[in-house]
Structure formats: C-alpha cells, structure tokens
C-alpha cells in the first residue's frame, strides 16, 4: 500500500486538487486548472490504460466549444463534420413522410475524438489510470481519497467527475439515486460511410415510443435507436438491470438485444436505415435514467472541500444534449472561482458557493428537461 504525497509538499499555488474521472469532464477540469496556473492537479481514472475505450456522437454548444478553444484545443481536431443542420424526418409506413430542417447552435464531435484531444494535452504524470476511488474520509484533516487497491491520496479539493454511477455522489449526496426511465438508447457504429450523409438526421416513426438518430463520424456512421424496454427486458438484453449496468459495452450486448433492435428497425424504419442497423457490428447501449435534481454542488470535507460536476452531479437524458456541455461549463466556472481564490485571495468557501449559485440552475433545468422531451417524443409512453 502506498500513500500519494500529502498537502505538506504543496507547491506555490497552494491548492492540491484531485480530479476523479478521466472521461470528458474530468480531463477538461484538469486542463483548465493547469492552464490557469494550478500546478498540483492529479486525475484519477478507474479504467486501466489498456481498457478499450469508445463512445458515440456528442453535440457541443458554442459555450463549450469556446471553452475548448480558449484551452488551445482547435475545433478541427475534434469536429470532423462541421454541418450545423438537423433534419427531423417523420416516417409513416416505413417511408419518410415530411422533413423539417433546423440549425443546431453548436457542432458534433464524438466521445472518442474529444477524449483523445483532451487527454493528449495532459502533462505527463497528471493522469493515473487504474485508480478506482472507493471512499473518502476527512475529519479533521483534508479530504483523503481511498482507492480499491488500498492506496490513498490527500487533496484540498476533490472534484468528482466520475459519471452517472458516481462514487462521489454516493458518498456526498446518497439520497439522489438513479431511476430507470423505461427506455434504452441503443447505439451502433459502422465502419463504412454512408455516401452523401453530412447532417444529423432524426427519424420519428409515426408509431410513438421510438426515435432513430444518425450522423456521420470519421470512417463510418453513428446511430442511436431509442426503444422502450422493461427493466427485466434490459437485464435479458445486457446481462444486468439498468441501475447496475447503466452503460452496456459491446461485450454486454447479447444476441437477444441485437435481434430485438433489428426487428424494430425492420418494422418501423425506412429500408436504408433498417439495413444500416442490420449491418452494424459494434453495438452499445445506455439505459435512459432519471434522478432528482441536485440541490447543491459543494460539500465541506474536513478542512477541505469536495464538488460534483458533469454526469456525477446531474446525469441527464441524452435528448437534452446537455450532459457533456454542463460538465465543460461547470469545469470552466469552477476554474474561474478557484482562480479568484488563488490570485486575489478570495475566500475559498465563498468562491465555491458563488460557483454553485451560478451553475446549479442550469443543471436542474437539464434534469427537468429530460422527462419533458421524452414525453414529447412519446418515449416514456
Ligand atoms: C446516446 C447519448 C447521446 C448523448 N448526446 C449528448 C450530446 O449531444 N451533448 C452532450 O452534451 N451530452 C450528450 N450525452 C451525454 C454525455 O455523453 C455525458 O454527459 C458525458 O459523457 C459525461 O461525461 P463525464 O466525464 O461527466 O462522465 P462519464 O463520461 O460517465 O465519465 C466518468 C468517468 O469516471 C470514471 N469513474 C467512474 N467511477 C470512478 C471511480 N470510482 N474512480 C475513478 N474513476 C471513476 C469512469 O471510468 C469514466 O471514465 C449523450 C449521452 C448518450 C448516452
């Protein structure tokens, strides 16, 4: 067992920051803090470095794109198709019936492109993979993180960006638990492109209770098919209930799940989309989940603090397209508050409270928007 250096070895900027979760929100927070002059930032990620990684299409709004720009991550590194067009297509009898075009105030990336763009910029020694946080103690000292392998690490501020099934949320806000919303975002990525596909297409079959989205990604096509499933069906499809397996990775997707998705595609989608689904080898899924809106983002822990951000704070339904955006905006706001503390001696507790005051309403709004959109699309019928 080893213990990472304690706060007594802190350097000039004063604050030792431990960020938990190395997906999107965590690396963004770590980079922003380092960019702002915090030189004692460590990022802990549960997955080992060798774990296969991947993820689907993510729409980023201008606020997030600008934060990444300011961080020196050029947009063309993570946006390969710069269309702003969204086509809503109603489908009747498996044929496109009408189309409505609108523009998205942002651009589409993929988890894979954005994760790579962020993590390749982390200075050596920042990211510790294979470090799963299991607990945190504080009194009367600074927060002490406990890891699955018995290691510990001390920090003045712990930033939990550990996603939908957050350990940080379980420790800090245990009453807010995930609830299954009754439908699944089945996802697929093809390794061949669809000629002419540039935009984000959203197919809405007239039979409510489903939606099919498709967009180009480098080297292929990314699709998401929202379909209803009981919790028992979800277990059949992916080997565990939705509250335990919030994401189903390719190795969890059973033949039963593949067949159910193919059958729905064949029954309700136009030929081209049904064929696309059928031909897709790599499949994943995300259970659509709800949670009570957060009432706070900051907690005192011993002589320090812990915060929740990104999906750890507020996992939102995918249709809101706000999950990654919230995480990036919260990370930038947190960096601004901490910079006021570091540069101008602002009271740290007040600075963190101010950050919470500014960012909590957007997180609450996104949590509340999810069921409204699900209802509008007929998905939770
Ligand atoms: C179908 C779909 C479409 C979406 N579309 C959009 C969109 O258009 N726009 C948008 O903004 N968002 C979208 N999202 C949401 C977006 O993908 C998430 O909000 C985003 O990935 C959250 O990032 P995160 O870093 O906060 O959490 P996560 O990506 O969940 O990452 C959490 C990380 O923490 C690690 N971890 C977990 N527990 C521990 C632990 N105990 N110790 C150490 N590490 C740990 C995990 O291994 C993981 O790497 C979509 C989601 C889905 C499913």
TrEMBL record:
InterPro entries: DHP_3-monooxygenase, FAD-bd, FAD/NAD-bd_sf. It comes from the Bacteria. PANTHER family: MONOOXYGENASE-LIKE, OS06G0597600 PROTEIN. This is 2-polyprenyl-6-methoxyphenol hydroxylase. Residues 16-368 form the FAD-binding domain. SUPFAM superfamilies: FAD/NAD(P)-binding domain. Pfam families: FAD_binding_3.
């Amino acid at each position: 067992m080893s213990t990472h250096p304690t706060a007594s070895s802190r350097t000039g900027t004063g604050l030792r920051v431990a960020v938990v979760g190395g997906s999107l929100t965590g690396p963004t927070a770590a980079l922003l803090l380092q960019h702002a002059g915090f030189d004692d930032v460590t990022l802990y990620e549960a997955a080992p470095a060798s774990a296969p990684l991947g993820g689907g299409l993510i729409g980023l709004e201008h606020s997030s794109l600008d934060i990444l720009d300011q961080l020196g991550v050029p947009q063309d590194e993570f946006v390969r198709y710069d269309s702003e067009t969204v086509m809503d297509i109603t489908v009747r009898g498996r044929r496109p019936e009408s189309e409505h075009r609108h523009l998205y105030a942002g651009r589409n990336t993929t988890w894979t492109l954005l994760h790579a763009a962020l993590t390749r910029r982390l200075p050596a020694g920042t990211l510790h993979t294979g470090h799963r946080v299991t607990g945190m103690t504080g009194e009367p000292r600074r927060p002490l993180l406990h890891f699955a392998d018995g290691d510990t690490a001390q920090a003045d501020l712990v930033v939990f960006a550990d996603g939908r099934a957050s350990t940080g949320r379980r420790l800090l806000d245990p009453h807010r638990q995930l609830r299954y919303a009754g439908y699944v975002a089945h996802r697929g990525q093809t390794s061949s492109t669809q000629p002419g596909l540039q935009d984000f297409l959203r197919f809405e079959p007239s039979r409510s209770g489903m939606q099919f989205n498709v967009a180009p990604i480098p080297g292929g096509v990314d699709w998401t098919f929202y379909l209803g499933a009981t919790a028992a069906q979800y277990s059949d499809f992916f080997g565990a209930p939705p509250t335990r397996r919030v994401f189903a990775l390719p190795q969890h997707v059973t033949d039963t799940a593949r067949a159910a998705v193919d059958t729905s595609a064949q029954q309700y989608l136009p030929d081209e989309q049904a064929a696309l689904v059928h031909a897709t080898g790599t499949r994943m899924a995300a259970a659509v989940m709800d949670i009570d809106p957060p009432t706070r983002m900051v907690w005192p822990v011993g002589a320090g603090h812990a915060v929740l951000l990104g999906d750890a704070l507020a996992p939102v339904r995918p249709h809101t397209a706000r999950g990654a955006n919230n995480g990036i905006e919260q990370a930038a706001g947190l960096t601004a508050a901490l910079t006021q503390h570091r540069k101008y001696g602002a009271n740290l507790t007040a600075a963190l409270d101010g950050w919470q005051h500014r960012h909590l309403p957007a997180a609450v709004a996104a949590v509340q928007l999810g069921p409204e959109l699900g209802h509008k699309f007929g998905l939770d019928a």
